[in-house]
Amino acid sequence: MNSIEKFLAAKTYAVAGASNRQHKYGNKVFRALLAAGRETYPLNPVTEEIEGHKAYPKMADLPIVPESLSIITPPEVTRKVIADAIAAGVKNIWMQPGAEHEQASESAREAGINVIDDGSCILVLLARQS
């Protein structure tokens, strides 16, 4: 199983950088995962609800530890999100294009996490599957 297959084989997901604004990638990724029938939780520190789902300020506030985490945040935010994901025990991390943080990727790999940070986009992949 390759990195992307491992990410998509998960039962639970979180989207860091999920947004209420439908034109934003964080919203599109969240909706795409929901549309694909995946149990998905939005992470956003300033929004209480996204697409009718309770939003959580940070990883530690989630009711579960998601197996897979999609990140759509600026690189400096990504660094903190990945530190939280490592501490929580997330198994798979996919940094969407523009969210990559080299040092955080390294830390996640050293912690044994499956990391996707090669510029591939989950929206493109999910669109091919539907």
From TrEMBL:
It comes from the Bacteria. Residues 7-99 form the CoA-binding domain. PANTHER family: COA-BINDING DOMAIN-CONTAINING PROTEIN (PTHR33303:SF2), CYTOPLASMIC PROTEIN-RELATED (PTHR33303). This is CoA-binding domain-containing protein. It comes from Rubripirellula amarantea.
